[in-house]
């Protein structure tokens, strides 16, 4: 026995008692639409590879080519000796894609949100001598919460995607000192609904607030040329997104003004104190950024599939909540039923992940379906048939 086994085991036993203990299951093989687990082939409706780019030949080829040219790792952090022309090329491509003055690469979306937000809050505190007022959507991703926590900020949370509530909260603090931040997502990871970016921008302007938008699930999928919802308007002060979802690889970006990016290079610990992204990763990102603007037909196919699946689920008498994107929750509520529903889908050859607290609020357990442009008609029909079987056995 290791010295602290009891310490950890007690916590694990508690999780088991609550029915919330998680385990990682091995995926033996995968392609854009299937995985092999325990020797069984499953149609994959769990991945965030929304455009099927993780297995695109150009993405794989450029990852290999850049590794051959630059090596397996970058060797140092960006400010030491880790910045190469490959990093600069990708950042220039990104800024052009997002139509911003500048863009910066980060090691992951989690790391970007957790470190950028805390650095921003600290700057606001130093500049104004007052704690900033940070308005956040109740369903924001854990990394955004972490960023606020790391800065010791007490968030002012507005009801999910409710801009009237946000407006009232901003109004009620009109005379309070401190810089204002509005922090939200353009597409929510568990609900698949979209934010009204133009409405947000109007509110941010009216209250002089800094607008921080997480485009993790919109980048590549929505907006002109897959640019994300920030592409529908200007005036978003900071846009972040990841390469780990529709762009098919790994890493993240922040896009915005030159001055903001230059400041982050100096003051954001999650940028300064970590090793620069490795060349193979940069090659994959570069190829994805080249491909994404021209993938309009794939985006259309993805949205058509999503519309069909949402409609079928509603016809089964189940709710898909406020989803209007490729992320479709099948809302079940109870943890036990949700787990049983997922098990039936798996028996029918479909992988759709059950999501339960703490990832979602209590009694909001659901199956989170994530569609890909690589799914064809037959695959969508198989999904709908399996959903109908699981509904009949567990819910009806
Ligand atoms: N923001 C949102 C909204 C996300 O859903 C995620 C990933 N789950 C992240 C940030 C983190 O991104 P990454 O996986 O690149 O760390």
TrEMBL record:
InterPro entries: Aminotrans_II_pyridoxalP_BS (IPR001917), Aminotransferase_I/II_large (IPR004839), AON_synthase_class-II (IPR050087), PyrdxlP-dep_Trfase (IPR015424), PyrdxlP-dep_Trfase_major (IPR015421), PyrdxlP-dep_Trfase_small (IPR015422). Residues 42-387 form the Aminotransferase class I/classII large domain. One of its GO terms (biological process) is biotin biosynthetic process. Keywords: Biotin biosynthesis, Pyridoxal phosphate, Transferase. Its cofactor is pyridoxal 5'-phosphate. GO terms for molecular function: 8-amino-7-oxononanoate synthase activity; pyridoxal phosphate binding. Pathway: Cofactor biosynthesis; biotin biosynthesis. It catalyses: 6-carboxyhexanoyl-[ACP] + L-alanine + H(+) = (8S)-8-amino-7-oxononanoate + holo-[ACP] + CO2. Its EC number is 2.3.1.47. Belongs to the class-II pyridoxal-phosphate-dependent aminotransferase family. BioF subfamily. PANTHER family: 8-AMINO-7-OXONONANOATE SYNTHASE, CLASS II AMINOTRANSFERASE/8-AMINO-7-OXONONANOATE SYNTHASE. Homodimer. This is 8-amino-7-oxononanoate synthase. It comes from Novacetimonas cocois.
């Amino acid at each position: 026995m290791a010295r602290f086994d009891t310490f950890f085991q007690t916590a694990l036993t508690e999780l088991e008692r609550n029915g919330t203990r998680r385990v990682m299951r091995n995926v033996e093989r995968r392609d854009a639409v299937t995985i092999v687990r325990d020797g069984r082939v499953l149609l994959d409706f769990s991945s965030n590879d929304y455009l099927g780019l993780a297995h695109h030949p150009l993405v794989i080829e450029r990852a290999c080519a850049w590794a051959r040219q630059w090596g397996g790792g970058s060797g140092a952090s960006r400010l030491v000796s880790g910045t190469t022309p490959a990093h600069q090329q990708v950042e220039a491509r990104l800024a052009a894609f997002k139509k911003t003055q500048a863009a910066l690469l980060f090691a992951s979306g989690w790391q970007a949100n957790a470190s950028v937000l805390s650095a921003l809050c600290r700057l606001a505190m130093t500049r104004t001598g007052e704690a900033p007022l940070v308005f956040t959507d109740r369903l924001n991703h854990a990394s955004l919460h972490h960023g606020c926590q790391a800065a010791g900020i007490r968030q002012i949370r507005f009801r999910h995607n409710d801009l009237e509530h946000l407006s009232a909260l901003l109004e009620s603090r009109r005379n309070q000192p401190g810089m204002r931040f509005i922090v939200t997502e353009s597409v929510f990871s568990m609900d698949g609904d979209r934010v009204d970016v133009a409405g947000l921008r109007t509110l941010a302007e009216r209250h002089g607030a800094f607008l921080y938008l997480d485009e993790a699930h919109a980048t590549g999928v929505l907006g002109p040329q897959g640019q994300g919802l920030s592409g529908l308007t200007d005036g978003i002060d900071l846009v972040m997104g990841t390469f780990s979802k529709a762009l098919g690889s790994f890493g993240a970006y922040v896009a915005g003004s030159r001055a903001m990016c230059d400041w982050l290079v100096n003051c954001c610990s999650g940028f300064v104190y970590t090793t620069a992204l490795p060349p193979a990763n940069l090659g994959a990102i570069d190829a994805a950024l080249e491909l994404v603007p021209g993938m309009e037909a794939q985006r259309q196919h993805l949205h058509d599939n999503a519309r069909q699946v949402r409609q079928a689920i509603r016809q089964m008498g189940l709710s898909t909540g406020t989803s209007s994107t490729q992320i479709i929750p099948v809302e079940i509520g109870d943890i036990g039923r949700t787990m049983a529903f997922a098990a039936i889908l798996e028996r029918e050859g479909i992988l759709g992940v059950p999501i339960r607290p703490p990832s979602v609020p209590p009694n909001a357990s659901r199956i989170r379906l994530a569609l890909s442009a690589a799914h064809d008609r037959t695959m969508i029909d198989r999904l709908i048939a399996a959903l109908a079987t699981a509904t009949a056995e567990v819910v009806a």
